[in-house]
Structures are given as structure tokens and as C-alpha cells.
Amino acid sequence: MAFTRSDTANGTAHLITTGFRSILIPVNTAQPELPCDMLDVAAYLATERRSSIVLLAFTEIPLWEELDVELPGLDGHVEAMAKRARAIAARRGVGVHVTAPRTRQPADLILREARRRKAQLIVLGATGRSRTSHRALAHDAVTRRISDQASVPTMFIQAPVAA
Question: What residues pair up with 57 in beta bridges, in sequence order?
């Protein structure tokens, strides 16, 4: 939840709860499944204002491949992620818009998409294979760059540890 400062006529300041109207969740399609923990937190934050969530299901294409390279199963994987994301958010009455671009520079894409969509929060987990520790978040180059350069708040979500 975001807070803005409002100055009143008598000089006292009050914090006004404004909520997040737009939340961006970038997810690398190389992950075998949607990180539901990130989406659940975003949906919870979006509930109060009936905010929208943008799921940015990006595919990182290596330099030696063409951007439009055939990736068997990618469309089905993105559709499954979108279906799961919408189901999680729908439990709280929140809408999800899904976009699935290809990129060579995930950090650039995420920062650009956050500006374009006027996101008020970016919810991140590590983009690599391991999201289970805070070290994975701290040492992930994409995550670090976004947290350093984003013009909006960035929330880091650590994957739950299996019991």
C-alpha cells in the first residue's frame, strides 16, 4: 500500500492511504511454473482499490538466436501461466492483463514496461532458476538493476521454503 503526504490548511500533515492502482509482475517463462507467491501478494495489495495487475511473462532470447526463433510449447506455457494468474487474482476480485514479449535485455524490458503502464509497484523474485534464498535475489543481475533504476517501489518476494 502506498502512502502520500497531504498538508492541511493548519500545517499538519496526514498520511493518506492510496493503494496501488497498477502492479507489474515480471516472470521469466524459463521458470517451469508461475510463482504463485508473487501473484498472491500482488493480488492482496490490489484488492482494496480493485487495482489491475500486469503479468509480464517475458522470454529471454540468447544473442545467438533470432528473436522470432521457434520455441515449441512456449505459447501453451504462457497460456497456462495466464490462466493460473487470473484464477489467483480472481479470488480477490482483481483483474490481470498478460503480455508475453521476447527480449535479450530483461531489465530494460521490465523498466520500460513499468514506465509505459505507469506501474506503481514492481513485484520481483529472482529471474534465475533459484528463488529460494535472499542471496538469489541479491545476486541476480536483472533484479539488482531493476531495484537500482526503477522509478517506482520494488517489492521482493522470497519463494516459500518447502516444509
Answer: 27
Looking at 28-140, list the stretches that DSSP marks H as alpha helix, in order from N- to C-terminal side. Answer: 36-47, 74-90, 106-116, 134-139
Q: What does the pLDDT read at residue 58?
A: 96
pLDDT at residue 69 tops 60: yes
Strand-pairing partners, residue 52, are: 22, 95
State the DSSP H helix or E strand holding residue 156, giving kind and residue range, or none if neither.
Answer: strand 154-156
* Span 12-34, pLDDT tens digits: 444 344 566 799 999 999 988 88
CA distances from 87 to 28, 49, 52, 83, 103 (A): 19, 18, 14, 6, 27
Domains of the chain: 19-156 (3.40.50.620)
**What is the pTM assigned to this prediction?**
0.80
Cα three-residue angle 83-40-109, rounded to 5 degrees: 70
